[in-house]
From TrEMBL, chain A:
This is Molybdopterin synthase sulfur carrier subunit. The keyword Nucleotide-binding applies. It comes from Thiohalophilus thiocyanatoxydans. GO terms for molecular function: nucleotide binding. Keywords: Nucleotide-binding. Pfam families: ThiS. SUPFAM superfamilies: MoaD/ThiS (SSF54285).
UniProtKB/TrEMBL annotation, chain B:
The keyword Lipid biosynthesis does not apply. Its EC number is 2.8.1.12. It catalyses: 2 [molybdopterin-synthase sulfur-carrier protein]-C-terminal-Gly-aminoethanethioate + cyclic pyranopterin phosphate + H2O = molybdopterin + 2 [molybdopterin-synthase sulfur-carrier protein]-C-terminal Gly-Gly + 2 H(+). This is Molybdopterin synthase catalytic subunit. It comes from the Bacteria. Gene3D superfamilies: Molybdopterin biosynthesis MoaE subunit.
Length: 77, 145
């Protein structure tokens, strides 16, 4: 299965890329997506996560074709 | 209920008037609450000359749309409008416009504060400031409504 992964703002700059595509044998958690997409980088404590453009937690299951995003606390408005 | 991301500068008061006239609700609303957020030329004791506003295309629009629907479900609203800038922003540019129309003021005040506080707390936007010292990401997040 294939998963699209996106990083935004300071996290994108730190990791040196805005998006990547993962292939996996079966469903995995958002936390596992992070590990695989970042070569096991430590996840920042305040990172926010979205699955298919909805906020989720790290234990949420990710399936084939899903889009997972990681980003720092938001600062709009 | 309408929300929109803008890549170019906008004049909030002209947008407000245009939207209000297009609503065709004259005579039905007794209260309009408006919030305009503009870019300051200073932050944390430093001069800020410009800002890059980044968003998550798709999720940001979805989040703002849902926020408008949630406010309409919670308060007695006639209409609402959210406009938010992205891209390169200069001091005095409008960053955000939130407007709420309702029969009475309580709903308009509460719903506009809700929209603004939730937007600041959860809508996926990020600011990167340009100062005389270089560029820096803004990090202060607020708690929400």
């Amino acid at each position: 299965m294939t998963i699209e992964v996106k990083f935004f703002a300071s996290l994108r700059e730190q990791l040196g890329r805005g998006e990547t595509r993962l292939t996996a044998a079966g469903p995995m958690s958002v936390a596992e997506v992070w590990s695989q997409a970042t070569d096991n980088a430590e996840m920042p404590a305040n990172v926010l996560m979205a699955l298919n453009m909805e906020y989720v937690t790290a234990d949420t299951t990710v399936n084939d074709g899903d889009e997972v995003a990681f980003f720092p606390p938001v600062t709009g408005g | 209920m309408h929300s929109e991301i803008r890549e170019q500068p906008f004049e909030p008061y002209a947008e407000l008037l245009k939207y209000q006239q297009a609503m065709h609700a004259a005579g039905r609303y007794g209260a309009t609450a408006v919030f305009v957020g503009s870019m300051r030329e200073f932050n944390e004791d430093e001069t800020v000359t410009a800002m890059e506003l980044e968003h998550y295309p798709g999720m940001t629009e979805k989040y703002l749309h849902n926020l408008g629907e949630q406010a309409a479900a919670r308060w007695d609203l006639i209409n609402s409008l959210i406009l938010h800038r992205v891209g390169r922003v200069k001091p005095d540019d409008a960053i955000v416009l939130v407007a709420v129309w309702s029969t009475h003021r309580k709903d308009a005040f509460e719903a506009s504060r809700y929209l603004m506080e939730e937007l600041k707390s959860r809508a996926p936007f990020w600011k990167k400031e340009q100062t005389s010292e270089g560029q820096r990401w803004v990090e202060n997040n607020t708690a929400g409504y």
